[in-house]
Amino acid sequence: MPTLVEQFNDYVNAGFAGLWIQTNEPDEAEQEILRHGASRKWTVIAWDVSRGLRAGETVVADSGGDPVAALRALPTRNEAKQTTLLLLHNFHRFLGNPEVVQAVFGNLVTGKKRGNFLVVLAPLVQMPPELEKLFVVIEHALPGPDQLERIAHELLCDDADTMPRGAELARILEAASGLTRYEAEGAFALSVARHNRIRPDVIWELKAQLLRKNNLLTLHRGAERFESLGGLQNLKDFCVRALAPGKPVKPRGILLLGVPGSGKSAFCKALGNETGRATLLLDIGALLGSLVGQTESNLRQALRIAEAMAPCILFVDEFEKALSGVGSQGDSGVSTRMFGTLLTWLSDHTADVFFVGTSNDISKLPPEFARAERFDGVFFLDLPNVAERDAIWAMYRQHFGIPEKQARPDDSAWTGAEIRACCRLATLLDVPLTQAARNVVPVAVTAAEQVERLRTWATGRCLSSGNPGIFGREDESTPKPSRRLQRGQGSNN
Ligand SMILES: Nc1ncnc2c1ncn2[C@@H]1O[C@H](COP(=O)(O)OP(=O)(O)OP(=O)(O)O)[C@@H](O)[C@H]1O
Ligand SMILES: [Mg+2]
């Protein structure tokens, strides 16, 4: 992606008089533009409400906080065609005022002829309809590895020996990816204050906190591995192969459909550890709850952070819940638009972000979503078959210290979650497994229709998570719930 300055330069050369830079770091953007402007001999002045007009560091006397006065500062006759830029900090705040809007409009219409450019620096893109067609929007990207390294250098310039190098530096830059310049500086400084050097763990810790603060993305840090999940062999193999480093094409992502308790969420959490990628959880529910109008920009921001953190995994759990408003009335189109943004991103993103979406109710998913070509694979996680159940039992017997010889209950139509629950209860209540099983009501019974619908839908459409190839009912090895089960109780012998 071209840098801010490169994009900026092209637009100025092409005579776009209105430039809207979406940035969380207006001062940094200003510095970049000032440096570039100096090399091109442009005149650059800046305005913000508290400092008034500034030319470089010099404050223009008595310019004050009046936005209209600031706009009048641009030359009205400019025979020499000197390029003049007026940088307006957080100007979205003033565009509710008709006088300001008209002044901006007037400047933009005549700007090209006079060589005057208005440059808004704001964290979001929000303008009245009169101005929409007059601004081009440029995103101020988060800093890349080079810039982050420079920030570390600047911080450690007094003590250059402590500047990390090689693999250590790479780990630090990976940890700092997705942070703004300001945040990265803070994270490095915190680490130096604590340990006298920059350490990746301190940066990860701070990054996790920062992500939590914006409430949209959470960094998952856990110790889960594939070996704690029985079955799902095809899915595991597929992902490990697709995410191996050094591939000529970048993986896009997968969709996991499945019965509740079949291990979808558990799988995603282990995937990051298995493949050495950071796992980001995107909470679409929280996103929708955010202020209307900000939802999409929040989503974009979350996607930008994910891109800056590439290679990583972006995990959206149970997204059908959040997207169920799509196409319906009453949500003022917010989920529809957000869904559109997400779909476009899924098809277009070039960064190495592996998307994993899970769902246990296909009927709530808009059909476009499940179209296979958006993903590298759409997998169905069925109830585990006999061999898979054996593996899961063995795992949880060991985990909960239940002897091998103790008889196990009739577990046909049980999910992994139910086997785990049974073992846990046996330990908790100090009873044999068969007795603990009386307290387990399988989802195949409680949600029989839903499970049935899912399986029917998945047949011929989804990849099997257990065996290579497409999921089909004929190779479904799990028996239907028995009559006894359907009467509503977990069975025991
Ligand atoms: N194949 C499995 N092997 C071992 N444990 C499993 C397996 N499947 C599920 N479990 C256990 O069951 C618990 C619940 O699974 P998980 O939350 O991943 O299910 P899910 O498919 O995401 O369900 P939901 O659709 O309700 O979100 C997990 O903590 C996990 O320990
Ligand atoms: Mg889940």
Characteristic key phrases:
single chain, 493 residues, alpha/beta, Rossmann fold, seven-stranded mixed beta sheet, 21 helices, elongated, disordered C terminus, binds adenosine-5'-triphosphate, binds magnesium ion
Quick recap:
The protein is α/β, with parallel strands linked by helices. The chain is built from 21 helices and 14 strands. A 7-stranded mixed beta sheet has the order 4-3-2-5-6-1-7. A 7-stranded mixed beta sheet has the order 8-10-11-12-9-13-14.
Helices, by number, come to: 21
- The geometry reads as elongated
Number of domains: 4
Structural class: alpha/beta
Largest sheet: 7 strands, mixed
- How is the largest sheet built, in terms of strand order? 4-3-2-5-6-1-7
What is the C-level CATH assignment of the largest domain?
A: Alpha Beta
Ions, cofactors and other ligands present here are: adenosine-5'-triphosphate, magnesium ion
> For the residues shown, what is the average pLDDT?
86
The percentage of residues in β strands lies in 5-15%
- What is the terminal separation in angstroms? 64 Å
CATH architecture of the largest domain: 3-Layer(aba) Sandwich
- Number of extended strands: 14
Walk me through this protein's architecture.
The chain has helices at residues 4-13, 26-40, 67-72, 98-114, 129-132, 145-155, 166-176, 181-195, 200-214, 233-242, 264-275, 284-289, 295-308, 319-323, 334-348, 386-400, 416-429, 433-436, 443-446, 448-458, 483-486, and strands at 18-22, 43-48, 52-55, 58-59, 84-89, 116-122, 136-139, 217-220, 253-258, 278-282, 312-316, 353-359, 377-381, 463-464. The protein has 493 residues and is an alpha/beta fold. The chain is 44% helix and 14% strand. Strand 5, helix 4 and strand 6 form a beta-alpha-beta unit. The termini are far apart. It is elongated, with a radius of gyration of 28 Å. Residues 477-493 have low confidence and may be disordered. It has 4 domains: 4-139, Rossmann fold (3-Layer(aba) Sandwich), CATH 3.40.50; 145-214, no CATH class; 226-381, Rossmann fold (3-Layer(aba) Sandwich), CATH 3.40.50.300; 386-486, no CATH class. The strands form 2 sheets. Strands 4-3-2-5-6-1-7 form a 7-stranded mixed beta sheet. The protein has a 7-stranded mixed beta sheet with strand order 8-10-11-12-9-13-14. The site of magnesium ion (MG) has 4 residues, from helix 11.
